[in-house]
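hey team, just a heads up i'm posting the complex here instead of the shared drive bc the drive is being weird again. everything in one block, sequence lines first with there labels, then the predicted structure for the whole assembly after. its two chains so it's a bit long, scroll down
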Amino acid sequence: MTSAERLRADGHPIGEVYLGRDEIAARVAELGRELSDAYAGRMPVLVAPLKSSAVFLADLSRAFGVDHELDVIELAPYGSGRTGGGVRLLKDLDRPLAGRDVLLVEDVVDTGLTLGFLTRCFAERGPASLAAVTLLDRPYRRLVDEIPLRHVGFTVPDELFAGYGLGLDERWRALPDLHVVVADELPAAIDAA
Amino acid sequence: MRETPTETVRFQAYRGSEPPRFVNGAERECARILDWYGIPWEYEPRSFVLERDAQGRVTSAFTPDFYLPEQDLYIEVTVMKQSLVTRKNRKLREVRRLYPDVKVKLFYRRDIERLAQRYRLRIAS
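-- predicted structure starts here --
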């Protein structure tokens, strides 16, 4: 029995495999080649927000044929902290970005709000270039268009996903394939009275 | 029925002059998400006239819920089931026909629920 089957048997809302590990690996290898061409002769720094991007970052880094640095940031989750607070960095970068070629590594881009925030934040630090790569792009609800999204792994439908680093409420990140989450079985999100 | 504007003081990115009075929880959640990311927003700042009678009186208009000035984008939030939004979709088509330079996005109940699920359950966006 696979880990997904075990979770399903225990009542977790893990649906079918949307992208298998082999398909993901093949696309990540292609992205690595794309990026190697784009950054030939340079020494970029890959910056990923924790935690959902961690698995993608690890695989992409090894598929990237150009020497590069890695750094991670952590954003305050939505709704956390004191009343009236907004998005902010809980963990900032370890090194300055001035004059560097920066590649933001995202797991999913949806509204573009997070990537838009990071773009504004890092653009102020004077990088030589600023671009982004995402494993999954869900462009249907895009609110912020001024984002430097240059490389996309997969354009995906409007579903919730888990696995390959993506989780909900810290669960299911370790599933090796990307699964659809059965959203109807999740708690109600809003009072839509 | 509109909500009383008790939350106004908490909205940092709100750019309107009058306190917003949301009609439902989906609008309120949308405002919270925009505010969290520091995206300036206004609430119902403009009505688009769609039809007038022979005397020039407005007989049909459309007032999107949100306007994002930095994106020059209007957002209409509806909590109706997707199958029941035909009338709203028709109005939206009219806005696009009469005001071709205006960008409007319709967020259905499902969209807001998904966004709220993602953000509350800490899925990256």
